[in-house]
Prior knowledge:
Layout: E1 2-7, E2 11-16, H1 23-34, E3 41-45, E4 48-49, E5 66-70, H2 73-89, E6 91-95, H3 99-111, E7 115-120, H4 144-155, E8 160-165, H5 173-177, E9 181-184, H6 189-202, E10 206-212, E11 215-221, H7 235-241, H8 261-288, E12 302-306, E13 311-315, E14 337-341, H9 343-347, H10 349-359, E15 363-372, E16 375-379, E17 394-401, E18 404-412
Parallel strand pairs: 1-5, 6-7, 6-9, 7-8, 9-10, 14-18
Antiparallel strand pairs: 1-2, 3-4, 3-5, 10-11, 11-12, 12-13, 15-16, 15-17, 17-18
This protein binds zinc ion.
Amino acid sequence: MKITASIPSVKEVTVDVPSNITVAKLKQILCKKLKIEQDLTKLLIDGIPLKENQKISKIKLKSKKIEIDYLWSRQLILWGENGQAKLGKSRILIAGAGAIGNEAAKNLTMLGIRKFTIVDYDKVEISNLSRMIFFDKSDAGKPKSKVLAKKLHNKYAHLEITAIQGKLENLPLEVYLDSNLIVSGLDNFASRFFLTSISRRYLIPLVDGGITGYQCRVQSYVPPNDPCFICPITREQYGNLVGLRNPCDAPIEEAKTPSLPTTISLVSSIQTQEAAKILLGYENYLKTEKWPEKTGQPMQGIWIADLKYNKYSLLKLAKNENCMVCGKHGEARNTVERIDISTQIFYSNDLRNKYLRKMFPDSDEFTFFKMSEGKPIRIDPNKILKKDLKTGDYLLVTLKRKSEYIEAIIRLK
Ligand SMILES: [Zn+2]
């Protein structure tokens, strides 16, 4: 029998199915056709859910259509199943599980992100609870990253979360390479410098937010061509910011930042939408330098708001050719090419050489390192045993191009 079903305002599908199947089987067929998840979908008629074990022949359809009620159906109106699937496959690194980390994790999850790595070195304090929705009094003293991961998972069982208690600077490189985007609430200059450098070098977009009392700001960095976070900083300011200017000075007592839940939710909402725009359009942008019309372009500059005086502005930035990160002598002046190679190709001497020559013309002297907990270990690909490498592993490759040695990252798939 022919059955027509629709996700309202998105799509209508007609399927031809045997009349003795159950509603559950029909749902399975419809979800497969629409590329949406069965466990997040219900079938309804006139707003009433159909019983999953009921035979479809028993449903009084007449001229009525079956409505497909899917968790993210309202977003499909904006960017379709393919856009939603792209969000679902992305992994976001949340740098800082504090106020912004809590709010951003909530927003990103509700948007359909399913994979997170949450990093924070800090522990929960009672004064955090005014702004951090996932923490309770009983969490005081526990690591923020782990508590946030656990609470998110309790509420949304479909999430895949890795929680790390530690500093961003100490993370193995693989953690960054696994991430499609970084959302941060960085409160110190050294971490901003470090993350911006990682972001540019490995082409991992970064969306940062911050608040001070009534004021707040958001900044998106889309590598490699945007002005980066460090572009506006001169070398002289850099010395002051990292505290190197007067190394003999006594340390200043750590001042507490005035904070409000309102500025935090505003900032993290804007960050989340920026993250969505970038995840949905970055692949296209890298190929064509254009952002998809449907989902929009990330902000260019720093968005600043002052909720006390109701002032909102976008501060434009210029690219600084002497920037300490992205400038011509900057730490991340070269971006690292990233390619995927199947293990089958990698293990064959001929195929590997052919593939690498195609990917890196004018280059030779390839040297391979296996990445292990952030440390590169040199390997001879002709001698390494198959059991030593697996799908998903990263290899660092150095290669000679003209007179310069450059780096590339290979992921085995
Ligand atoms: Zn820069």
